[in-house]
Amino acid sequence: MALAQYKYMDIIHRCFRCGYCKFPQDWADVDNCPAYARHRLESYSNGGRLWLIRAWVTGEIQWSPHLADIVYSCVACKNCEEKCPLSFSDEIINMVVAARNEMVELGLLPPPVKDYLKNVQLHGNPYGLGAKKRGDWAGDLSVEPYADQEYCYFTGSEGAYDTRAQQAARSVAQVLQSAGVSFGVLGNEETDDGNEVDLMGEDGLFELLAEKNIATFKRRGVKKIITLSPHSFNVIKNKYPQQGADVEVYHYTQILADLIGQGRLRAPRLDGACITFHDPCFLGRWNNEYKAPRKVLKAVAGARIAEMQRSGKSALCCGGGAGNYYTDLLGASPDSPARIRVRQARETGADILAVACPNCLTMLEDAVKVEGLESEMAVRDISELFALSAQ
User: Fold this and answer.
1) N or C: which terminus of the chain has fewer CB atoms within 10 Å of its end residue's CB?
2) Helix, strand, coil content of the chain in percent (nearest 5)
3) Taking CA 337 as the corner, what is the angle to CA 320 and CA 157, rounded to the nearest 5 degrees?
4) 314-371 confidence digits (pLDDT tens)
5) Which residues pair with 152 in a beta bridge?
6) Is 191 exposed, middle or buried (0-12, 13-18, 19+ CB in 10 A)?
7) Which segments constitute the 4Fe-4S ferredoxin-type domain (predicted)?
8) Which domains does the chain have, with CATH numbers?
9) Would you call 194 helix, strand, or coil by DSSP?
10) Are 302 and 269 in contact (CB under 8 A)?
């Protein structure tokens, strides 16, 4: 590979593998990088990964399927950026994505990554399901097509197609309806938000997805958006404006927090329940929103909120970011980040592990099953707790 192709060549060598990228905020252990926690090999930490990328772009090592797996094992959780003390820390994920850009251009991708991108390109979603089914998530729930309502509810591909995430998508809609929020949905006109496509390094496909959604927003007169997924929230808020979008975007927990403050949302009563909350990376570290979901949970009557030792900026990622909820490059082990995370949650004594992300919901619920904790701890989207009172 020619050096000029990799735009971070002038700074990538500055990483000297100090190891800080693996630590949580309290410096308790070196396993807060999901890929490193899974493999316990320096090559899977971001310090090791950057060294391997540099060696590849300089021609010191050749591409291999194993190298591709290492590069794509980064879930873009941003723990490394939080902990890196060096001046280029805010470019760490960008350096990894730039290497993926090169692998996309050269067609050197892990098979599950190739499948993900192919499905999105052909079908508008990573599941390879028909676009006409995108609006089926609502089931028998009466939701209106977006016309001139105050908000457009954007469910994302997970909420539209994943069986478990569909339940959360319906719960959010139910809660919004119960509070009298004016909203509509795009149905089959919505397409994949492109957050994971962007992080996988497929710039051209991301631009097509963003342009299609933005064109729909403009044609339908959308001004305000509520998202189910923090991934959708992140990309519409931070990347779509570069493609010409002019919309306000909110994660649903931000809306629920405001509704509670206004006295418009009735909170459930869960006497004796102990709830712990898992911070989604794309709500927390990517967008610095830690307060809204906690404000919503604190409104639950009769319940005790127990924080995990690693919460907020130190939360261990479930391992589902950057498409890994689909590619599963970090699964199949007791040391998979999702299984580690549910064990951390159970240590709090919680019987409810609350989440606010459809990717986290499916990843952590599957981990609870594998860990044999189904009788002890339930995984619930925050909206599902409030939907009990909305019925």
Assistant:
1) C
2) 50, 10, 40
3) 10
4) 999 999 999 999 999 998 899 999 999 999 999 999 999 999 999 999 999 999 999 9
5) 184, 225
6) buried
7) 12-86
8) 3-109 (no CATH), 131-258 (1.20.1050.140), 267-390 (3.40.50.10700)
9) coil
10) yes
